[in-house]
């Protein structure tokens, strides 16, 4: 399906998603600078991701319910505005504790945005929901890819500039969404109980647990690796820019092709196995060049898994899009929140690459869950894309 076939609201939301997810990757290159200038340990620096992800995970329970009451567009605008305010505040503080608190509020804003953006794209897509989700994941990946590059360029001058830059981009995104995004068809009003209730569906719970375990490995790679590469801000930005480009290829090219050939659950299982293998290789080598190359290659698997797990989350049950997305993202990001601080602690006390071994084991458990509950996905696959 070509871009011209999408509803303008789909494209507008995809572009806003790109801008929003710049804010995640933009922090990566400046983590060593923050640790050095604020006198913080690697363990403390990891709280910048943990507070963000923990609040984001919990807030997704509220975001899905809120969207059915005030509308997906209004919820998304509230999220973007929240990110703009607290990202700007991050540029003004001088302690790691203050940064961690503000990043928590940043996570709240991103939860409001993420849940509703995915629901809007699927809700107003004129064709296959799988194709719309592929566009969403490609926009997400491109945002994460460009974020480190921008963060590296600005962070080479000061670690404060990437935060200020994110705030400005969010203000631009806010204006863009106000003028171009339309509200999809209204969904039945729901509360937090309805969102949590989606976990009664075996497939929803299984997919969310797999997403949680995979996300632990994902953020072990994304949040912790900048601290052990031994590179400057710009070079870290370039490594993760290349990683992000591979995320796009994985979600937009590799995922649809392998899903059509083998099936979404089967392709997801293969991707989990390979991703766990890459994390094992990262545990075995501390060489900067090897780690950088493995990070970049891992982007293919991250892109595939992001797209596949989101596709299954949106099509696995008859629950509303907002409730399904909110439930999935809640468990996914709450589980991922413990990866950064765990990695920081293990790396500080037991060896720089030990966190990758734990990440590989956790992702491996996700594969075991998938294989053990494979029947939960037997009748839940979305229809394949009808165009290219």
TrEMBL record:
The chain crosses the membrane at residues 9-31, 43-63, 75-96, 108-126, 138-157, 163-182, 203-224, 236-255, 267-284, 290-309, 330-347, 353-372. InterPro entries: MFS, MFS_dom, MFS_trans_sf, Tet-R_TetA/multi-R_MdtG-like, YfmO-like. It is a multi-pass membrane protein. SUPFAM superfamilies: MFS general substrate transporter. The keyword Protein transport does not apply. It comes from the Archaea. PROSITE patterns: MFS (PS50850). Keywords: Membrane, Transmembrane, Transmembrane helix. This is MFS transporter. It comes from Natrinema zhouii.
């Amino acid at each position: 399906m070509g871009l011209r076939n999408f509803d303008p609201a789909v494209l507008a939301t995809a572009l806003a998603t790109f801008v929003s997810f710049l804010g995640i990757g933009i922090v990566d290159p400046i983590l060593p600078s923050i640790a050095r200038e604020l006198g913080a340990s690697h363990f403390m620096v990891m709280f910048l991701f943990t507070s963000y992800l923990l609040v984001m995970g919990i807030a997704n329970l509220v975001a899905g319910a809120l969207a059915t009451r005030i509308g997906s567009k209004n919820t998304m605008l509230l999220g973007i505005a929240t990110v703009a305010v607290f990202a700007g505040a991050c540029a003004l503080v001088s302690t790691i504790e203050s940064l961690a608190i503000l990043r928590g509020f940043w996570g709240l804003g991103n939860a409001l945005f993420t849940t509703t953006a995915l629901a809007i794209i699927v809700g107003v897509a004129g064709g296959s929901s799988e194709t719309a989700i592929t566009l969403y994941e490609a926009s997400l990946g491109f945002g994460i890819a460009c974020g480190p590059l921008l963060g590296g360029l600005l962070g080479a001058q000061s670690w404060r500039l990437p935060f200020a830059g994110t705030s400005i981009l969010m203000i631009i995104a806010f204006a863009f969404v106000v003028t171009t995004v339309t509200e999809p068809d209204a969904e039945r009003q729901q509360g937090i109980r309805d969102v949590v209730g989606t976990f009664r569906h075996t497939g929803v719970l299984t997919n969310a647990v797999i997403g949680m375990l995979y996300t632990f490995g994902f953020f072990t790679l994304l949040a912790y690796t900048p601290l052990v590469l031994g590179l400057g801000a710009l070079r870290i930005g370039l490594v993760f820019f290349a990683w992000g480009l591979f995320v796009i290829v994985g979600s937009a090219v590799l995922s649809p092709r392998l899903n059509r050939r083998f099936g979404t659950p089967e392709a997801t299982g293969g991707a989990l196995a390979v991703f766990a293998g890459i994390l094992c290789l990262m545990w075995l080598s501390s060489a900067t060049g090897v780690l950088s190359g493995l990070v970049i290659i891992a982007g293919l698997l991250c892109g595939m898994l992001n797209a596949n797990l989101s596709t299954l989350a949106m099509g696995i049950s008859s629950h509303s899009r907002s409730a399904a997305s909110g439930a999935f993202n809640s468990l996914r990001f709450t589980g991922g929140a413990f990866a950064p601080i765990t990695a920081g602690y293990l790396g500080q006390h037991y060896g720089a690459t030990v966190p990758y071994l734990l990440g590989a084991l956790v992702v491996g458990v996700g594969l075991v869950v998938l294989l053990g509950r494979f029947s939960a996905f037997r009748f839940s696959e979305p229809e394949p894309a009808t165009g290219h």
